[in-house]
Amino acid sequence: MSMMTPDRLGLATLTSIILDVPEGIAVVDEDGLYHYVNPAGCRILGASPEELPGRSAFRRDTAGNGHRPASAAPVGGEHAIPTVRLRRPDGRWVELEYHDTSIVVAGRDFALVTFRDVTEARRRERQLAAFGRTASSVAFSGSLRKALEVIAGEVVRATGTAGTQIVTMDPVDHGFRLIGLAGFPEDTDDFAVRLEQCRQRGARLRMVEAVRTRSVVIARHRKAEIMRDPAWEPLHGQMGRLDWDSFVAVPLFVRDQAVGVLNAFYPPQHDPGDSDIAFLSTMADQAAVAVQNARLLADSKGRAALEERHRIARDLHDSIQQELFSMTLHVRALQLSIDRLGDTQPSIRRSVTELLELSQSTVSDMRSLIFELRPAVLREQGLVEAVRRYAATVAARKDLRIDVHAGADRLDIPASAEEDYYRLIQEALHNVVKHAGADSVQIEIGCASWDKGTMLVEVTDDGAGFDPDAVPPGHLGLVTMRERAEWLGGQLEVLTAPGRGTTVRVLVPRGLGRALERLSGPGGAGPAEDVGATSRRPA
């Protein structure tokens, strides 16, 4: 049997094939204008057969390699077949594989272009690749923040979301902390503080509903509603700059325990579908594993460090401190013997007196060091009393006036956070003693006066101050202090200038966790609205 030629098929048959094939077929002239597009091509391009002829769609490649869509963006060199990304009239982006052939009709040059929609196929490929990279990041990253930022970035790249947040939740106070972020403007440091202000004004947090109901929450066209709602006014600026429309919140759970939320913000014309939700859920599982691994590692390191501090404190107390105390007694006895003899050389008497003072000072320093290593009062009487005792020890040893102001003797904060606050204050006081040359220090602990939903810890001295821009990174323990503040869900501020003293301030939003507690109980506020959480006082 011989191959059937087109002329034997007949014009009617060829026309029927062109009309019925699932691939797009287009005829484009040398000026890049459509002359014909078959029905499948019209469906792929999102336009009617009457709209396309004469419309600019393709242009001749300057390298002489045929034609390509003028409104399209090339998609990498990942595939042997040319691929372009094209925006349809309805605003939806599609990815097309295409092949073009030059033809001549009635003496004119045309391109015959065949194309097909590979949007979903390419999306699945990107999602699979993103999952693989994310799994590697979770397994090998030494930093929770880095791992979650990688996950957030992969979500944005694989799904085309305008922005993604990964928010962790404290297991004790249910407070939210923004850890992973991608796609957002850079000036979002105060997002959590502004979000808490929105909640206090009556805004409802949809991500809280996702955690409470243990289900994915999809809120279509939320940007328009948020921008109309005066309760969201503190975040109108930041949310308005992001090009988004719909919002999806996916809760993070590990062994039936909520550990956070993944928030995705979809651009206009991108209605999140089942494949999007399935992918977000998979990435949320990866994020949950990363959070749990980090917590297990932190708990393990924390226990090891605590045990080591206690061991060192015991050793210092049982050996070195006792020996120093014994030495002090011997020097005191020698001093009394010299007093009885009465005719000792003045230089010997002076040396013995200095040795006694030095030994007594060393014993005092050792007691202070043991207290720093093992502040039992922190566990037994809370943060405020532990800070007062530590401040009194430093004040007596360094001839400083230190005043501690607290909203209450026992603050309503989780025990797991008390040591972080204590170490922050300890480091700040250490800097005052070592660098400031101050006469007095004021320590404030409690709710911020301008926002009762924000925890404030502030250490202010009247010392020399310094130029923040002139301090090398990592100097003055600022990196460790900043990491502690971020782990608490807040942010560190250092306010200083040469000759004007220094204020070290930590602000941590507290109300978001209580919003979850209220929703979980009888008569809760019901569904909630969007996102968030780091910390910084609004300017």
TrEMBL record:
SMART domains: GAF (SM00065), HATPase_c (SM00387), PAS (SM00091). PROSITE patterns: HIS_KIN (PS50109), PAS (PS50112). One of its GO terms (cellular component) is membrane. Residues 10-58 form the PAS domain. One of its GO terms (molecular function) is phosphorelay sensor kinase activity. Residues 56-78, 517-539 are annotated as: Disordered. Keywords: Kinase, Transferase, Two-component regulatory system. Residues 315-512 form the Histidine kinase domain. InterPro entries: GAF, GAF-like_dom_sf, HATPase_C_sf, HATPase_dom, His_kinase_dom, PAS, PAS-like_dom_sf, PAS_4. PANTHER family: NITRATE/NITRITE SENSOR PROTEIN NARX-RELATED, OXYGEN SENSOR HISTIDINE KINASE NREB. This is Oxygen sensor histidine kinase NreB. It comes from Parafrankia soli.
